[in-house]
Write a structure and sequence with these properties.
Belongs to the quinolinate synthase family. Type 2 subfamily. Pathway: Cofactor biosynthesis; NAD(+) biosynthesis; quinolinate from iminoaspartate: step 1/1. Keywords: 4Fe-4S, Cytoplasm, Iron, Iron-sulfur, Metal-binding, Pyridine nucleotide biosynthesis, Transferase. This is Quinolinate synthase. The chain has 335 residues and is of the alpha/beta class. The protein folds into three domains: 3-106 and 287-309, Rossmann fold, CATH 3.40.50; 108-192 and 314-330, NadA-like (Rossmann fold, 3-Layer(aba) Sandwich), CATH 3.40.50; 198-273, 3-Layer(aba) Sandwich (Rossmann fold), CATH 3.40.50.10800. The chain is 43% helix and 14% strand. The chain contains 17 helices and twelve strands. Strand 9, helix 13 and strand 10 form a beta-alpha-beta unit. It is globular, with a radius of gyration of 20 Å. The termini are far apart. The structure holds 1,3-dihydroxyacetonephosphate and iron/sulfur cluster. 1,3-dihydroxyacetonephosphate binds next to loops. 1,3-dihydroxyacetonephosphate (13P) binds at residues 60-61, 134, 148-149, 192, 218, 220, 234-235.
Amino acid sequence: MNILEATKNLEKKGFMDMTVSPTLDLFAEIEKLKKEKNAIILAHYYQEADIQDVADYIGDSLGLAQQAAQTDADMIVFAGVHFMAETAKILNPNKKVVLPDLHAGCSLADSAPTEAFRNFKEAHPNHIVISYINCTAEIKALSDIICTSSNAKKIVESIPENQPIIFAPDKNLGAFINKQTGRNMLLWNGSCMVHEIFSLEKILKLKQAYPEAKILAHPECEEIILKEADFIGSTTEILNFAKKDEATQFIVATEAGILHQMEKDSPQKKFIPAPPNNACACNDCPYMKLNTLEKLYLCMKYEKPEILMEEELRLAARKPIIRMLEISKASGLIK
Ligand code: 13P
Ligand code: SF4
């Protein structure tokens, strides 16, 4: 496709569908483009290994939001999913934010449609709304505070105990935080397809085969999995635990992309992805994995697809994110 056709088809395809010569050294070209355009690549741990290796910063949702808030780059290349790139745009209206594939969505964000959520909120007018960052800009705009899996407990604890709270969209994270804090937040019925696919039976079988292995789980997993976990945390917290803990074998119940950094950090340790409840590679997030090194190169070169947003929506969505960053700073979670 030529550039005109690729631009015309951008929305349908989700990326600039242009031929890239197989002989091109994409790693070198991406480095060149970074300098030429004063661009920064922010990548989530669930991205494929090559993308993590070209990133300037790899992190969890909280770290990525903080980096996006602090960067002085002119262009933010967000190697993650749509809600993450949107968060970067909300914090940086004057910077160009590009995403390798516009179709890199999120089943959890999709589980909270705007109108249904607005009605739910209106039905509980005395509640404040805490939303997990894995939601659309529209849901953020309907929220009082945003949280991520690394700061959710602190954010909830910052609210007076007698204040009723709606927690959205992840019911598993919400239930986990309810348990941790003794609150009784009203939970929106959303979930992540990747974290709900793990098979308890297969994890327990693996545990029999590797009795010394510790089970690490993300709080987006269901309670039956969390009950078996030796450690529960965000992607960064899981990584730090695996690096510091004396165990040498770990069963990892989160998206399999995280294994790349785990193996880099601790090459002498064994990391086993927790098996899903069928034969597919369902612990690979299909949205995260839409981004490829080739699409990353194309989006940097053509500066498309770009994240754009109405100013009114941006300002409304910004408020609860800033509140989250302020609470996280005050409680020492970020600098
Ligand atoms: P964290 O990296 O914040 O733990 O988030 C996990 C996730 O599911 C992102 O999509
Ligand atoms: Fe969304 Fe789940 Fe994929 Fe994270 S792993 S982007 S929560 S679908």
